[in-house]
Specification:
FMN-dep_DH, globular, alpha/beta, oxidoreductase, about 350 residues, binds ligand FNR, eight-stranded parallel sheet, Alpha-hydoxy_acid_DH_FMN, (S)-2-hydroxy-acid oxidase, EC 1.1.3.15, 15 helices
Length: about 350
């Protein structure tokens, strides 16, 4: 590819050139046959737009509110692991880009910069993503550190009691470098992680017994809003509302966990209907264009999160690359809104798109 990328997809090629194969495969890969990986992107292609004309679109306002926080656009940074594999500045660079774009970054539990390093690097609005560790006291300490350092929400990822089977990582014998948030929390299992495979790490450390009633425990140890990430069905959406979480993220973990789950965009509406407006629904999986953001909003998402494109931007051009990825998606969303007759985010409605189901 020559010159500057003109869309988010072009960062992928740059990242491929910049990264050792093992790391590129780690970021890029999905589970098993990677059916869901392909579908997450392709299902967007099967949704078309229903623009309205002769609306005053001389001013377009992309800004919106997520859990009470004003952001410049409904586009957030998803939690993704190990940014130092992509760039030496790691999650600090990503957070600075989030701050300059005035959006929210969700810091991964598996980050390679500490919660403190990221917090002191900039004033980005930050949420902290949590996996519950077998030793609950370690999880509790991490949450306290996040609270002390001004993180505004806890994102509990619920689709990874075990690690999905990512065959590229198995083939490459992908190793899990030291995860910085655990330093000082002394844990034999985590220290032993040096050089071991990620799957063994997850099996040894994550609490696979975690279930709905444990949300009460989590609620009792933090005052921060709790979102659960990884809901794909109306049944679980209803339970999430019942146990009193503050938000849902419709996600299949970027197709890295259970293969043959549907594309997230094709289950978003089911979840939105199930929660009947009681809590906000966010969305991730396969967002590569401003039109994708528009489609997710039309189906009822309050905002979207972006995973791989951010990591590819980071690998290709550091903080600047992440900033460009978010800006490109914002610019495309702005144009889509103008050409669809939607001057503001709240003007985007279900009637602005047509899904496959609508055509039946
Ligand atoms: C992830 N994801 C993820 N999710 C999470 O809750 N904690 C984590 O540590 C990670 N790590 C991670 C690493 C990499 C390399 C990827 C690609 C993804 C999932 C992530 O938050 C999000 O759900 C997906 O990335 C969204 O899909 P797209 O945007 O990558 O298509």
């Amino acid at each position: 590819m020559e010159g500057e990328p003109v869309n988010v997809n072009e960062f992928q090629e740059l990242a491929k050139q910049a990264l050792p194969k093992m790391y590129y495969d780690f970021y890029n890969g999905g589970a098993e046959d990677q059916y869901t990986l392909k579908e997450n992107v392709e299902a967007f292609h099967r949704i078309t737009l229903r623009p309205r004309v002769l609306v005053d679109v001389s001013r377009i306002d992309l800004s919106t509110t997520v859990l009470g926080y004003r952001v410049s656009a409904p586009i957030m940074i998803a939690p993704t692991a190990r940014h130092k594999l992509a760039h030496s500045e790691g999650e600090v660079a990503t957070a600075r880009a989030a701050a300059s774009c005035n959006t929210i970054m969700v810091l991964s539990f598996m980050s390679t910069c500490t919660v403190e390093e990221v917090a002191s690097s900039c004033n980005a609005i930050r949420f902290f993503q949590l996996y519950v560790y077998k030793r609950r006291d370690v999880s509790a300490q991490l949450i306290q550190r996040a609270e002390r350092n001004g993180y505004k929400g806890i994102v509990l990822t619920v689709d990874a009691p075990r690690l999905g089977r990512r065959e590229a990582d198995i083939r490459n014998k992908m190793i899990a470098p030291q995860l910085k948030n655990f330093e000082g929390l002394i844990s034999a299992e985590v220290d032993n992680d040096k050089g071991s495979k990620i799957e063994a790490f997850v099996k040894g450390t994550f609490d696979a017994s975690l279930c709905w009633r444990d949300l009460g425990w989590l609620r009792s140890i933090t005052k921060l809003p709790i979102l659960i990430k990884g809901v794909l069905t109306r049944e679980d959406a209803i339970k999430a509302v019942e146990v009193g979480v503050d938000g849902i993220i419709v996600s299949n973990h970027g197709a890295r966990q259970l293969d043959y789950t549907p594309a997230t965009i094709s289950v978003l509406e089911e979840v939105v209907h199930a929660v009947v407006g009681k809590i906000p629904v966010l969305f991730d999986g396969g967002v590569r264009r401003g039109t994708d953001v528009f489609k997710a909003l039309a189906l009822g998402a309050q905002a979207v999160l972006v995973g791989r494109p951010v990591v590819y931007g980071l690998a290709a051009k550091g903080e600047y690359g992440v900033k460009r990825v978010i800006e490109m998606l914002k610019d495309e969303l702005e144009l889509t809104m103008a050409l669809s007759g939607c001057p503001s985010v709240k003007d985007i409605t279900r009637s602005h798109i047509r899904t496959e189901r609508d055509r039946l």
